[in-house]
Amino acid sequence: MAWTTEGEDLTAKEWTAHIHLSEHGRDTSARAVLNTGDNVLEGKAEAHRSPVDPSVPEIGDELAAGRALQDLAQQLMGAAARDSRALDEEREMRGW
After folding, report:
1. Which regions are flagged for Basic and acidic residues bias (predicted)?
2. pLDDT of residue 11
3. So what's the pLDDT on residue 95?
4. What are the C-alpha distances in Å from 2 to residues 11, 36, 47, 48?
5. Residue 1, pLDDT score
6. Is residue 33 within 8 Å of residue 20, measured between CB atoms?
7. What's the whole-model pTM score?
């Protein structure tokens, strides 16, 4: 879908993110999967409940999901940095 604003074409994109959680005793695992249509990135993380803490599964879910999203964000920033460097190198080679 494209919109025109002041003579510029703008493209709207939709990326899909899913968070998968699983609990194993005192441990919670999370996978955050981002599908951009061109690439799929996956962040992973865990949360561990101390034996002296009460069982509140929601807290483990939140911690594991947040950490998986942080992992995913770091991967996304890394991909952007690599793509930017590659573009800079191509510009230098072509003398742009």
Report:
1. 41-51
2. 87
3. 84
4. 5, 17, 42, 45
5. 41
6. yes
7. 0.82
3-state secondary structure 9-73: EEECCCCEEEEEEEEECCEEEEEEEEECCCCEEEEEEEEECCCCCCCCHHHHHHHHHHHHHHHHH
Per-residue pLDDT, 8: 77
Q: Which residue has the tokens 């069982």?
A: 55
Say how far apart CA 69 and CA 75 lie, in whole Å: 10
The one-letter amino acid at 41: L
Q: Which domains does the chain have, with CATH numbers?
A: 15-94 (3.30.160.240)
Beta strands in 25-94 (DSSP E): 27-35, 40-48
**For tokens 């409940």, what's the residue?**
49
Which structure tokens are listed for 66?
């947040």
Task: Retrieve residue 36's tokens.
Answer: 């951009």
